[in-house]
Design goal:
- The protein has 2 domains: about 5-150, Glucose-6-phosphate isomerase like protein, domain 1 (Rossmann fold), CATH 3.40.50.10490; about 165-270, Rossmann fold, CATH 3.40.50.10490.
- The chain is built from 10 helices and 9 strands.
- It has helices spanning about 5-10, 10-20, 40-55, 90-95, 115, 135-150, 155-165, 185-200, 235-240, 255-270; strands at about 35-40, 60-65, 75-80, 100-105, 120-125, 175-180, 205-210, 225-230, 245-250.
- The strands form 2 sheets. A 5-stranded parallel β-sheet has the order 2-1-3-4-5, sandwiched between helices. It has a 4-stranded parallel β-sheet with strand order 7-6-8-9.
- α2 runs parallel beside α6 (about 135-150).
Length: about 290
């Protein structure tokens, strides 16, 4: 079994541990103005956390790639997400924020540069990974954040276990993958597309569901699979199917649904003879010189 497969299959257990940890900590007041910051997969965790916190109307919430933090803005807190704690852009953003903003690192590695830069830390070492391609650390970090905002992570873990026990979604001969969702689902659609792209080097796209009509649908066809990570906007299904594309929906829990995507990716890994632990041109952490 690859590290990738082992790690995505252990996600429900990791989520429960993260949610339990969330019950023991207060991240910040409900009315705080908060920035969530990351790179790659961690950016999509940031987007999902900000989307759900805004949905719950707990306080202004923003998500940024670490390299695109707007200068001069003030936040009550900034959540800096990095599995390794060594990502250069996250370190630079943390250093820039630290003098005037409470910074909270969420990482898997103690004694990392990020831990030393940030004012506070939450360590998810139990969710660390061998695989370059992130699954369980990212979704555990997200589970911690979502649980602190009221999401029923235990229910999501139960639903994910159902996906893991079932036969994976049959993706057939699709060679074009589109992922859609709203709110948290839109952020996790970005992450689903990234996983397919990283592991399979496939042609993938992701959009908020309502945006798909506004141009991107023109690229859909018989070789397209459009996977919608929630049950919002069902009227779009017929429009997508009219292009010849196949539509997949697997309930209204995008966190659990992401595990369904991981299972489908594993199906294609086997079918195509891909090594998911050695994706092309990728490394565990981006550390830049200078």
């Amino acid at each position: 079994m690859s590290s990738f497969e082992h790690e995505f299959r252990t996600q429900p257990e990791m989520w429960r541990r993260a949610a339990e940890l969330a019950s023991d900590v207060t991240l910040f007041p409900s009315d705080a103005r908060v920035a969530f910051v990351g790179c790659g997969t961690s950016l999509y965790v940031a987007q999902a956390a900000a989307a759900y916190r805004n949905e719950k109307m707990f306080g202004e919430s923003y998500a940024f790639p670490a390299s695109e933090m707007p200068p001069g803005r003030k936040y009550d807190a900034a959540v800096m997400i990095s599995r390794s704690g060594t990502t250069t852009e996250v370190l630079n953003a943390t250093a820039a924020l630290a003098p005037h903003t409470r910074t909270l690192a969420i990482t898997a590695v103690d004694d990392s540069p990020l831990v030393h830069l940030a004012a506070e830390r939450i360590l998810l070492s139990f969710a660390d990974e061998q695989s370059i391609v992130q699954t369980r650390f990212a979704t555990s970090a997200l589970s911690l954040l979502l649980a602190s905002f009221g999401w029923d992570v235990g229910a999501s873990a139960n639903r994910a276990e159902v996906f893991l026990a079932e036969q994976p979604e049959e993706v057939g001969s699709a060679d074009h993958f589109v992922f859609l969702g709203r709110g948290v689902g839109a952020a996790l659609a970005n992450e689903a597309a990234l996983k397919v792209r990283e592991v399979l080097s496939a042609f993938t796209e992701s959009y908020p569901t309502m945006e798909y009509r506004h141009g991107p649908i023109s690229a859909a066809g018989e070789k397209s699979l459009v996977w919608i990570l929630d049950d919002a906007e069902p009227s779009i299904d017929a429009e997508i199917e009219a292009t010849g594309a196949r539509v997949v929906r697997r309930g209204n829990d995008p966190l659990a649904g992401l595990v369904g995507v991981h299972c489908a990716v594993q199906q294609l890994v086997i079918r195509r003879g891909v090594d998911p632990d050695h994706p092309r041109f990728l490394v565990r952490s981006i550390m830049l010189n200078g």
